[in-house]
Design goal:
Elements lengths: L1 H34 L6 H8 L3 H8 L2 H27 L3 H12 L7 H13 L4 H29 L6 H21 L6 H15 L8
Length: 213
């Protein structure tokens, strides 16, 4: 009986610890989007989260560790969403590729706060090797996934003069550029327009597999 009670208590503590970590990470995203990377302090994060400074120090020990975990959280969240979107789309590589484009400009991903945080981390990556590694891994996974889907489409449709890595690099650059437009000029660019631009690019490349709309 005592062992069962201890196991329940330990389970609750683990859940509470994970909830606190996520609470602080979400608060960090809000603070960095609002104040910028350099201006965000641990005190800002704890105030946004409604927690004490001792709590954030307990879970992350330092601002740098908190920021690393925030970047890792965003990267893992995006990877899980990508896998789910492709699984839901079905076996067709064209449908899976279109599903990735739809995800990239969904409210869950193309949230202006999250976009602002991604660009903040990318801006710091040159001087911080850990940030550079995490950002590069996220980009590499995305481009590898897109290139694999493009190669499947090429093999199926006989697009002899198309190189899958080139299309993947082009789509990645396009998505990043449109994210920047969504962040900086929201009156001129919205999610639907950004999605349409990417689909038009893919439809011109793979007309037999992806439609413009």
């Amino acid at each position: 009986m005592a062992t069962a009670v201890r196991n329940i208590a330990n389970g609750r503590r683990r859940v509470t610890k994970e909830m606190r970590r996520h609470q602080l990470i979400r608060a960090t995203i809000k603070c960095v989007a609002k104040r910028g990377f350099a201006e965000t302090t641990m005190a800002d994060v704890t105030q946004e989260a409604g927690l004490s400074l001792g709590i954030v120090n307990l879970h992350f020990q330092s601002k740098d560790k908190l920021f690393i975990e925030t970047l890792r959280y965003l990267s893992e969240e995006y990877e899980v969403a990508c896998q789910a979107a492709m699984a839901k789309a079905g076996p067709s590589p064209g449908e899976r590729l279109a599903a990735l484009v739809a995800l990239d400009f969904s409210p869950r991903v193309a949230d202006r706060r999250k976009i602002a945080v991604w660009f903040a981390f990318w801006g710091e990556a040159k001087s911080r090797p850990t940030y550079m590694q995490l950002c590069a891994e996220k980009d590499r996974r995305y481009e590898d996934t897109v290139a694999r889907l493009c190669q499947e489409i090429i093999d199926d449709g006989g697009y002899e003069h198309v190189r899958a890595p080139d299309i993947a690099n082009g789509l990645s650059a396009m998505v990043n550029g449109l994210w920047l437009d969504l962040l900086m000029t929201p009156d001129d660019m919205d999610r639907a327009k950004a999605t349409s631009i990417c689909r038009s690019y893919l439809a011109q490349t793979f007309p037999g597999h992806i439609s413009p709309t």
